[in-house]
Amino acid sequence: MMPKREPWVVKGRFVDGNYFDYLIGLSIENVEAILAQTMGDQSDDKCTNCHYGETPFKVCVQVPGMAACAPCHWGGLGFCCSFNSEKDIRKACNERVILYQNKFGISSNLNDVKMEITSACQKHDEEMNQLGGLIDSAEMLRATMAVLHKEHTRTANLADKIDNAHDILLQSTRCVLDTMKKKPARLEQYIEECKDLSDKVV
């Protein structure tokens, strides 16, 4: 088969050409959709998804042997195409469910699923309670740190006052010592003056 058209996409559906190229190689369904879009025949009546503009391509294209149109096949969503029969859609949906069950380990038993969800919710609640406890502990630690900081500031101020008092006391002590050193010299001078006076009297 020869290419019949460019795979024109809906404006604004993709960021740019590089991202579009990246998406093409992301899955085999996207590669098949691009090939079908360029080589298939344009449908006279669009499928429901293409009619409402919910597909990435502007033209609704079909290829013999492919139940879904090419735009719907993009992303592996061909089972949603209205060109499929109800039986084909149901079969594709069941296959998709089984695929996700095997991929993510999801049980097909609804009771098991309910139990798994309940268990996950309980685990989430326990983790939230633990987180709440950690938040409370963090708040207590924050309050304690604030008190310690206040006490540290108070202690630092008290240490500054003690240093100032020590400086004042040291200066006072030096003054007293200087005064005491001067007094003996004055006493000796007084004694000498008394002796001189006594000699004169005699």
Name a few traits of the molecule.
202 residues, mainly alpha, rod-shaped, 2 domains, 6 helices, two-stranded antiparallel ribbon, 2% strand
Task: Give a verbal description of the structure.
With 202 residues, this protein is an all-alpha fold. The protein is 69% helix and 2% strand. The chain has six helices and two strands; from the N terminus they run H-H-E-H-E-H-H-H. The chain has a two-stranded antiparallel sheet. The longest helix is centred in the C-terminal third of the chain and has 92 residues, at 110-201. The protein is rod-shaped and about 155 Å long. 11% of the residues are buried.
In short:
The protein has 202 residues and is mainly α. Helix content is 69%, strand content 2%. Strands 1-2 form a two-stranded antiparallel sheet.
What structural category do the secondary elements indicate? mainly alpha
Rough shape?
Answer: rod-shaped
Q: List the strand order in the largest sheet.
A: 1-2
Low-confidence stretches: none
Q: Approximately what portion of the residues adopt beta-strand conformation?
A: under 5%
Overall number of domains: 2
Q: For the report, how would you describe the main beta sheet? A: 2 strands, antiparallel
Mean pLDDT: 79
Element-level helix/strand string: HHEHEHHH
Number of beta strands: 2
How far the N terminus sits from the C terminus, by CA atoms, comes to: 156 Å
Number of helices: 6
Range of helix content: 55-70%
Radius of gyration: 48 Å
Architecture blueprint of SSEs:
Elements lengths: L16 H8 L3 H12 L1 E2 L5 H4 L9 E2 L7 H4 L12 H19 L5 H92 L1
Antiparallel strand pairs: 1-2
